[in-house]
């Protein structure tokens, strides 16, 4: 066979190229947000009525039959800074979370956080404010869910970054995430209790952010993350008493089964006479050792082998007893 006819010398067959190779769900989510905003800017997704955007979600929108809006609202933004801020934060925490939990779980955390956040905002808005309010838009609830999920997995990680390329952040991740959610709770409660706050900063969906964070935190908890982290040191420390007890039991069984079948009789006799005289035992041992030195170990009979074994065990037991404090 010619060299160029061999399989390993042939060029690899042409394979169809993947469209946008290397893209992950995180890239698709960010890309979809950008595409939707571009269509909004071109007037292809214009606002409807007095409640807000066509793809935004509200109780009124759901009552009108726009059930898809509970999912589409998280891809709609009202201004460039709103879009850029959310995409930077989602990209910063999302790339790390996706690497830890996988693409499928990352997408579920993103979507579930958005849905739960919108539901919490609509329920509180309906019962606390006495009305449905404007449509909810934006991916902030999704970002809060992604951030809290990542913080639950790696709470001790230290974040050293510049948010929006301006604000320097140097803090423990769990402290940063919970502190941000506490601020959201204070601002949200102030809009319910204070007319001035409702007028000046009441347009943000604070409770959607809190709902998204709770959803992300609970999702990774169900996956087994969060809580008191299990480390090798903690696992070794918790299992140490059991390991020591098991090790002593295994050592005892090995000692009892170390010799042939005549070992059981010798062991039984040594246990029945625990206070046997050490001098008489050593006399017997000396006689047997002399016999071995003179005629060889093959000349020992069964009784002499039992005596040697019993003497060895008796001396080992006395030595271990004397060494105990």
Detailed description of the structure:
By secondary structure, the chain is mainly alpha-helical. It has two domains: 25-222, Rhomboid-like (Rhomboid-like fold, Up-down Bundle), CATH 1.20.1540; 260-323. Helices cover 64% and strands 5% of the residues. It contains 13 helices and four strands. The protein has helices at residues 25-41, 59-63, 69-72, 80-101, 103-128, 140-153, 173-193, 195-201, 206-222, 232-256, 263-272, 278-295, 302-323; strands at 47-48, 52-53, 158-163, 167-172. It has a two-stranded antiparallel ribbon with strand order 1-2. A hairpin with a 3-residue loop joins strand 3 and strand 4 (167-172). Helix 4 (80-101) runs parallel beside helix 6, helix 5 packs across helix 9 and helix 6 packs parallel to helix 9. The longest helix is centred in the middle third of the chain and has 26 residues, at 103-128. The protein starts with 24 loop residues before the first helix and ends with a helix. The model is unreliable at 259-263 (pLDDT under 50).
Strand order of the largest sheet: 1-2
Beta-strand content: under 5%
Distance between the termini: 80 Å
Task: List low-pLDDT spans.
Answer: 259-263
Which shape, going by the Cα principal axes?
A: rod-shaped
Q: If classified by CATH, what would the architecture of the largest domain be?
A: Up-down Bundle
Radius of gyration: 37 Å
Biggest sheet statistics: 2 strands, antiparallel
Number of strands: 4
- Top-tier CATH class of the largest domain: Mainly Alpha
Helix amount, in percent?
Answer: 55-70%
CATH superfamily of the largest domain: Rhomboid-like
Q: Please provide the ordered H/E string of secondary-structure elements.
A: HEEHHHHHEEHHHHHHH
How many domains make up the 3D coordinates?
2
Q: What class do helices, strands and sheet pairing give? A: mainly alpha
